[in-house]
Amino acid sequence: MARIKVHVFLKPGVLDVQGKAVEGALQGLGWSGVSDARVGKLIEFDFDGEGDPAAEAKTMCEQLLANTVIESYRIEIA
Amino acid sequence: MSAAVIVFPGSNCDRDCKVAIERSTGEPVQMVWHQETSLPEGLDLIVLPGGFSYGDYLRCGAMAAQSPVMQAVKQAADDGVAVLGICNGFQILCEAGMLPGALLRNAGLKYVCKPISLTVANAQTRFTAGYQGQREVIMTQGNGDGNFFAEPEELARLEGEGQVVFRYVDNPNGSAANIAGIQNARGNVLGMMPHPDRAFEAELGSADGATLFRSIYAAA
């Protein structure tokens, strides 16, 4: 069985308003060195099905877990 | 004339749409649960209503786009039936790949809920033909993720093909090219963030939404 972690972020160049808000808040708390904050998602699950976990996870990302018009994803398998 | 409103778990404008269309056109509207795998025979219009389908989990409209009924909706659209996605319905159409682009979080991070002025960017569609000389319409907006995004090439194509149907007069959410509504290349699928279903009689502040429903029926 594989443990799959999928990281999903808005693509560079797509306005990440949550990231901007978090960045502004951190700077407001005094961390003036904070820049380029991005807010994304981590989706993790066990996978014990048919097929190669990496290939299946990629298909899952393309079909559901990420909207590739605006998001990019990274898959980790343990 | 025959219309159906698709009901997803978390839809909250489904009954608004039914009442709005029935009062605008005088024709009955059916409700179809999202688990259905087929649609009633002979539909002229399918509406994907506003709301928060599946609690906006993962992304707005992402789960609803995978609902069983969406295969039938896609087939109907391929057969030329008019499909109208309002607000969450617009998000679902984009997530289902039936319209290009995506809806991002509003640029100001706020949920925007207010009457809003729109220009009719293309009055030669089956959805907007009834506006005739009326260049500006008023409908109500209510969303947190209405900021339309598409890659520059896609935007250029939308503009070039006349697929931009409505634009904001005062952009409330950072939407690309002030886009409030777009249609597909074939011209039978419209997605829009403002609610014609909340603007179908003067007592609601505007009856401009009724014209949109009547246009669809007149074209069918």
Please describe what this structure looks like.
The complex is a heterodimer of chains A (78) and B (220). Chain A is an alpha+beta fold and 78 residues long. Chain A has a single domain, classed as Mth169, Chain: A, CATH 3.30.1280.10. Helix content of chain A is 32%, strand content 29%. Chain A contains 2 helices and 3 strands; from the N terminus they run E-H-E-H-E. Chain A has helices at residues 17-28, 53-65, and strands spanning 2-10, 41-47, 71-77. Chain A has a 3-stranded antiparallel sheet with strand order 2-1-3, covered by helices on one side. Chain A is elongated. The termini of chain A are close together. Chain B has a single domain (3-219), classed as Class I glutamine amidotransferase (GATase) domain (Rossmann fold, 3-Layer(aba) Sandwich). Chain B has 5 helices and 11 strands, in the order βαββαβαββββαβββα. Chain B has a 9-stranded mixed sheet with strand order 2-1-3-4-11-10-9-6-7, sandwiched between helices. A two-stranded antiparallel sheet of chain B has the order 5-8. In chain B, helix 1 (14-25) crosses helix 5. Chain B is globular, with a radius of gyration of 15 Å. The mean pLDDT of chain B is 97. Chain A binds chain B through residues 10, 14-15, 17-18, 21, 64-65, 67, 69-70, and chain B through 58-59, 62, 66, 94-95, 100-102, 104-109, 147, 149-151, 174. Chain A: Its EC number is 6.3.5.3.
